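Narrative progress, year one. The postdoctoral researcher (J.K.) led the effort to move from monomer predictions toward full complexes, under supervision of the PI. The following entry was the first complex the group processed end to end, covering 706 residues in total.
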Amino acid sequence: MQTTVQTTMQTKVAIHEFSLWLQHQQVLDAIELSIPANQVTALIGPSGCGKSSLLRAMNRMNELMLDCRSQGQVLLDGQNIYQSETDVARLRCRVGMVFQKPNPFPKSVYDNVAFGLRLQGQRSRRRLDEQVESALKQVGLWSEVKNRLHHNALTLSTGQQQRLVIARAIALQPEVLLLDEPASALDPISTLKVEELIYELKAAYTVVIVTHNMQQAARISDYTAFLNQGRLVEWAETHTIFTQPASQQTEDYITGRFG
Amino acid sequence: MRQWWQQGSPWVWFSASALLVCLGLFMALLGLIAVKGMHHFWPAPLVQFQLTEQSRPQLGRLVRSVSDRAERKDRAYRLVDRGDLIVDASSQLPGRYLLLEAHQLLSDRPKQAVWVQLQDGRTFYGKQVGQETAPSDAGLWLDLGMAAPVLISAVEIRAYWLPNQLSFRQKGAVFWQEWRYFLTASPSQNQSAGGIFPAIFGTLVMVLLMAVLVTPFGILAAIYLHEYAPKNWLTQLIRTSVYNLAGIPSVVMGVFGLAFFVYVLGGSLDRLFYADQLPAPTFGTPGLFWAALTLALLTLPVVIVATEEGLSRLPQAQRLASFALGATQAETIWKVVAPQAAPAMLTGLILAIARAAGEVAPLMLVGVVKSAPQLPVDTQFPFIHLERKFMHLGYHLYDVGFQSPDAEVAMSLVYAIGLVLLTLILLLNLSAFFLRQRLRRKYRLID
Ligand SMILES: Nc1ncnc2c1ncn2[C@@H]1O[C@H](COP(=O)(O)OP(=O)(O)OP(=O)(O)O)[C@@H](O)[C@H]1O
Ligand SMILES: [Mg+2]
């Protein structure tokens, strides 16, 4: 395993010896990975290698799955989130997540974005309006939905829904944002918007993004981790991974000669 | 031909014809009840008959023809209703319904034939004496085929018309008037006349009370089973048992309701709060609340099953989305899961209401009576009297149809009551149905 990152970098999330079993099948195997603060980390790897599972490990979503067992540590700002006294709801506010498939609630666009804010106790209509507007503007959805804020979110197109669920997650202003293929259903222009957004978010947030698009990983990420069959094969600065990968597997995958 | 088989066309035809048979039977049932029930209120012409050559002609309502198959002589009889009888010592009266041979029936349908019903529910058919079209101040002189005309005083008369003179439109007016009376009046003449309002009201109050009791319990139980309970064999066992509760015969539930709710719970309530009235029981006797509770128990599995079904149809992604936004499990359930499963809960409620409104057997044990002196809801504090006995359409139907001495008078009345019961259930279901449609439009994700 290669770790070619300067140790001076501040680590936001540190994953130690993390293994995961779903329905008695090992999905992650002793993952050792640091997510640097205020950087974009991309997770790449073939389908079914455990990228989504690794993302879910960072906000303890795996335990909502049937029959899940985990081992090892995930440290958020040095605190092990797998301690029993962790307030999981609070943790998930700090570590926001956008799922692979857009899953808006069958409520209005507005209520979708305001959902998390309301849970946080935000009752002021004016503040909610502002926060909803700013979140929707950040994902470039505002101009498209500002006249139908109170329509059912399921009437939006898939691409719009995908941006809506991103807006829903960033409205909470999490410290870490986990994005699972956030641009899979987007046209090039919307993709560009989302990529720009991720770039902007970097200033305030730590972003982890799963993507199947190598160009996208190369464009937007600072670090890239390559997973295969539940193991972390290689982790390095993005340009290193893409120009001189240490492992033959990584090179094969990136150049499209994999499997 | 082989191709026809291979393409599976026969199955289309089989299933379509099965559906057609079902629909046909439904339509036949509904049609029969509707036609017969409506017929009860349509003013029938009055005919004249003579018991013997010497006796005076009397008036009667032709009920139906009866042909005597047993004797194979094709002798046609007519069943005639001659109304309630004023018994006087001189006349030997064989009963209200007469089986007459064709020759005893006179062809004449007198224009002055009067149908009159008294406030107490008795009905008379007679010939009007004189020419006035409305009863005079004193009352109405009627020739009932007895030695002398009879005076019926005006205050006693509830309704009055001359069916043989009525035009179609006038008959229609009478029809509606009689329906209104039927729906709003209390029964009289040992249930054979008057209206069924207390029974409608009792059914409605009981069903609504049942719904109020069963909905929260059923929904909460289903939410616990589906969202909170660990998924292990014990939960599965409980779930299976609950589902099987639906198969318990309702009369057994009635026995349980009587033994446990009425005697144990009601008896304890009486000892605790109504000790001063003992030994006269207050809650320790069958009543509205116990009936509603028994039916709630009976329909609980229906609500639980339907709600659980709705909960399991809800995609897991919806729950995950909520958790990922920092919601706790309780918040997820109340803000995401429950609203989206609401249509399914309403489906459960619809099924529960449909089942409860038609249930009679257990009610006979826990609170329904043949005739209740008071409605369960009135203007006296505390307005809804849970301990009172009440009347119920289903039981009323049974009582009129099978417990009355006069099967003939009951026949068409039974259909009319059946029609009202069906309509009531239909209305209850429709209102829940439309509520569900509205919710579905709101949460379009699950159907
Ligand atoms: N709920 C689950 N129960 C059992 N096994 C699961 C579950 N979810 C995922 N897995 C298994 O875990 C492995 C990793 O799944 P994961 O979804 O993390 O893959 P991925 O890298 O995100 O794939 P993709 O690129 O297709 O999204 C797969 O083999 C999958 O079959
Ligand atoms: Mg995935």
